[in-house]
Amino acid sequence: MPDKKVIEKAEKDKEEGKSPTTQAGEFVRDEMHKIRRGEHGARSPEQAIAIGLSEARRAGVDLPPPGRGKAKKRTRKSARYAYEAGQGKRKTTRRPRVAKAVKKALKREPTSSASRQALSRHAKKAAQRRSAASRSAAARKAVRTKGPAKRSQAARKAAKTRARRR
Question: Mind giving me the DSSP string for 78-90?
Fold first, then answer.
């Protein structure tokens, strides 16, 4: 179950008019921290992200499950279940034995899947699958929701990064 702070951050994002994926990002971020702390592990960065998205859906973030052709059938079914549970359309039954088995299995997985290098590799791979136009449009949309103070802060950070790489 996610911390109260994470849910509050996601609710704040919703109030600010940010997208459901941004709200879900809070849960994914929390999941990465859990893995880094060693609470459990994950086979890959994708699995860690999937766990975070599932928690977000169950917590009520309006993030619909992926459509046909976007993910495998089992993943879509699981996402639909989590989404319906979060929207109050489905009663969830507690399954302590299953939960314990899942936790035990995740404890055996490596924690390196939430490392900076692993996440960087994942981000680059994900970006390669998108077109330049799509990436550009996403950047423009991000600028619109950022606000002047955050935009200025981001520009300073980018300048610092460029200077460091010279």
Answer: HHHHHHHHHTTSS
Q: Is 22 helix (H, G, I), strand (E, B) or coil?
A: helix
Note the pTM of the prediction, 2 decimals: 0.82
pLDDT tens column, 126-158: 999 999 999 999 888 888 878 889 889 989 999
Nearest residue to 42 (alpha-carbon basis) of 96, 122, 124: 122
Measure the CA–CA gap between 83 and 64, rounded to whole angstroms.
Answer: 7
The C-alpha atoms of residue 73 and residue 148 are separated, in whole angstroms, by 43
- Amino acid 157 reads K
| CA 10 vs CA 24, 32, 123, 136: distances in Å | 7, 16, 22, 25
Q: Which of 112, 54, 62 is nearest to 81 (CA)?
A: 54
Structure tokens at 156: 């300073």
What region, left, alpha or beta, does residue 62 occupy, with left being phi > 0 and alpha being psi -120 to 50 degrees? beta
